[in-house]
Amino acid sequence: MVTKTISQNTLSWFDEARFIKPDAIFVLTAQYVTFKSPRKVNLGQGTYRDENGNPWVLPSVRKSRELLSQSLNHEYPPIVRLADFRKESRNHYTKKETNEGIACNLQSLSGTGALHLAGLLLRACKHFPRSIFLSQPGPTIIRCCETFQYYNTETKNLEINSYYSALKPAAPNSVVYIHACGHNPTGCDPSKEQRQELASIFKEREVFTLFDAAYLGFNSGNVDSDASAIHSCIEEAKLEAGVCLSFAKNMGLYGERLGCLLLATSAEQTAVKTQSMLEMLQRSEVSNSPAYGAKIANTILADPTLRQAWQDDLITMSDRIRSRREELYGHLVSCGAPGSWEHLIRQSGIFGFLGLSPSIVLKLREQYHIYMADNSWISIAGLNKGNVAYVGEFITKCLKQNASPRCPDMEASEVSTVS
Predict the structure, then answer these.
(1) Whole-number Å distance between alpha carbons of 385 and 324
(2) Residue 30 placed within a domain
(3) Could you write out the DSSP letters of every residue in 123-180?
(4) Considering the chain, what is the average pLDDT of its residues?
(5) HSE (CB half, 13 Å, CA atoms) of 237?
(6) Which of 192, 302, 343, 368 is the most exposed place for a label (fewest CB within 10 A)?
(7) Is the dihedral of CA 189, 190, 191, 195 positive or negative?
(8) What's residue 142's pLDDT?
């Protein structure tokens, strides 16, 4: 058999390809997995874990799977995906009495896929976004944005005046990308009054709001409460907006990549045209989204008993996250960790921002095998009763050994959102 080899001097179609560094969070997780020791802690992966550090299959999901197994098939779903799932998603994530504001929706490949679909749609529409505003620090899945300072490193809290100042002069037809709750990576959210003020600014400046709603339920244990920022914009301020939902997190369906894009538009005919464009864009991207996860979620949302069981599961998860956050705070204080740590219990949701310098983070990783992002972003769900004292003890030890224990620079490295 004759074989041909490509000469070293032959040009490749891919010579112009750029090397892209691996995602920092996935690299961190790989380092954690590779290190063989029972005494190690992974705080760098934004997924819920139980008290043993294992993935948790929600009881409501287990029951849904049992019911599905009796009549499960594997046919293609329609382009718009499962109609019942889309209906239940809309009904559950908006106030029932006003959900006519949600004019169109489409199943997506998790929250990231919903965000991607929304970007394609906005780019295709008449008014190309003048600017896209993104919080700093914030996720790195969106590029070429105007950033505004979201976090005050001195007060270790939301920098709301910077938020206002960035949006007040925004050009019409700009887009602001914000988290509905549980801001990633800071864990700091605007208050109800601040959300209402922001909605007024969005309306005055004709800004389109795109919500990342990946963690509804993790803050309070109640989806409706955690969606109050969405309600402020759509139901109260009557604004057009997009909502990028993910069931990967709050149903634990990570590998099923289940999400949904909801859009509130201004008129019925606009909704019809927008829905058709979404379907066309989806057809050219993935054609048919996976059906199994959508069937699991729909079974839960459509059945009152299962829906209540899921709400109980959300309370279980949010309560555990809140308890571990308080325990870490308690251990840091009792161990005499230098500095103030009240910011930990002011934060909410699955993420936390410790405020450690990159050198402290590196020492924790290399000497004590406590893995977190370089800018000390952590997943609170990675803490449990077996490791929270260990983490508090060695954070304190490293800080006491360091001549400059605190570092105000929170932008030393990037954090990515895994949706």
Answers:
(1) 8
(2) yes
(3) HHSSS--S-EEEEES--SSS-S-EEEE-EETTTTEE-HHHHHHHHTTPPTT-EEEEES
(4) 86
(5) 25
(6) 192
(7) negative
(8) 65
Residue 112 sits at the vertex; the CA angle it makes with 55 and 246, to the nearest 5 degrees, is 55
- Do 151 and 34 share a domain, yes or no? no
How far is residue 320's CA from residue 317's CA, in Å, rounded to a whole number?
A: 5
How many domains does one find in the chain?
2
Task: Read off the pLDDT of residues 15-41 as tens digits, 9 standing for 90 and up.
Answer: 889 998 888 888 888 888 888 888 899
Q: Give the model's confidence band at 363: pLDDT under 50 very low, under 70 low, under 90 confident, else very high.
A: very high
Tens-digit pLDDT profile for residues 299-320: 999 999 999 999 999 999 999 9
- Element of type H or E holding 48: none
The tokens for 244 are 């990028």
Query: Taking Cα atoms as reference points, which of 162, 175, 169, 170 lies closest to residue 211?
Result: 175
Q: How far is the CA of 263 from the CAs of 230, 271, 294, in angstroms?
A: 11, 9, 19
Asked if residue 303 and residue 342 are part of one domain, the reply reads: no
Domain boundary among the residues 261, 279, 308 is at 308
CA–CA separation, 116 and 242 (whole Å): 12
225 lies in a domain? yes
Q: In terms of residue numbers, what domain contains 170?
A: 59-308
CATH code for position 203: 3.40.640.10
Residue 331: CATH number of its domain: 3.90.1150.10
- Structure letter (DSSP) for residue 318: H
377 and 347 both lie in a single domain: yes
